[in-house]
Please model this.
Amino acid sequence: MKNVSELLNPTVVNIKPSGIRKYFDIAAQMDDVISLGVGEPDFPTPWHVRQVGIKSIEDGCTFYTANSGLMELREEICNYLKRRFSVEYKPESEVLVTVGGSEAIDGFFRSVVAIGDEVIIPEPSFVCYAPLVTLCGGIPVPVETYEKDEFCLDPEVLKSKITSKTKALVLPFPNNPTGAVMSRKQLEDIAEVIKDTDILVISDEIYGELTYTEEGHVSFPSIPGMWERTVLVSGFSKAYSMTGWRLGYACGPKEIIAQMTKIHQFGIMSAPTTAQYAAIEALKNGDEDIAKMRAEYDRRRKLVVNGFRSVGMDCFEPRGAFYVFPSVKKLGMTSEEFCQRLLESKHVAVVPGDAFGKSGQGNIRVSYSYSVKHLKTALERIGEFIKEL
Amino acid sequence: MNKKILDLLCENARYSNDEIAVMLGVSADEVKAAIAEMEAAGIICGYTTLINYEKTENEDVTALIELKVTPQPDAGFEDIAKKIKEFKEVESVSLMSGGFDFAVTVKGANLRDVAMFVAKRLSTLEGVLSTATHFVLRKYKDMGVDLAEKSANDRRVMPF
Model:
């Protein structure tokens, strides 16, 4: 037999592991490290939600659910999306409950991307889109976003990336890592660019509830004419602090959802049952929890932006998610250099911006999903680091 | 804005005006003025420290005392509440609905001190009909804060 490494799928082998992971491992081996690196909430899941999960186990609700998820959960997802973002879906045919938002993203690409299809992906953004497109034989087409636009997608730049092979556009807003949020007006401008094309859209709105603008989160399918071409992906991880429960969902036209359900049926069967019961409780009685956590994140956001600015760093004001994305260009360092030196000299771990795409070069991602006390200590150390340069 | 300031001070009374100002997106002067105003209006009555005495040498004991009283003509419960709260041993006094009238927390150096205080001072007050003393054995949560030993470990490992 050949060496096993020669028997692997070259498409998979050629995918590079995420750059953030490597960096995190270095930090994990140091003492006294203050991390600003994690990408998940620091709050525990609200107790009433956990209790319902526990009770479902006690009651013996430990079987598979329907492939698409519990009907009651799908109904509550539809109620919630209508109540919060004025988008409407039918629970019977237009909703699929998935293992986190990630599975929904994967399922979308696998359902629509054929070999040679192009998918436009704004960068910097979450690390999963391009590899998942590649796995389908598709071609990821990065489209840069710029600090001068507060990392929003420019419709003209988008237009320049569209070809006859463009199958889909990813809209990852509110954005990880930049914290960028697209307003209704900005989304309408994007809609204008694609409205006469056959481009499908996957709108990854997992951070939708963590939007700090007056206008609040605007869901892309709520823009006239966009519902028909959009799959909305969201989940419970960020809004309800339920990352470990692994529960998300996709909503969209029944033709796409049907294909995604097929893949889900064969690859997953059904999303975790305990998590589904807990999620029903979260949707029914969790609005206040969200509001409380959002207010807390908002305070930290202001504290951290102020912290970077007061030591002389350029830091645009992010309006969503729980990250700030300050620039280190002025300091004459690459992202990687900054992160490495900060980690070595002050034991503070942040993530290089270019781990999220080339256009993130010159920035760093800082998570404020930590207590105020933790953030203050980290900011003090960063301040010392800058002073000593 | 006052409510937001109060929320922050309840979370941590040691936040500086500057810190509060940054977190709320207002000026430090506005915060200072708002706090001064709330202090003057008696909305903010003081700042204290939350201590888990189990971890100190302090061996004081605390008791919750249920008090039944006869309301006084005209003054109702006010007069007697005023008398109760004057004692330095008394930490808190609340008028309650339900089976008794006042819930009084009393702190003393030991069991006997508290017992003697109840017997000699509280139960002898004019209008007091009966007392029931419950000693606090252990406190799990106070002022919204979990007093249990916190594991310093952040379990989160995922950088995404």
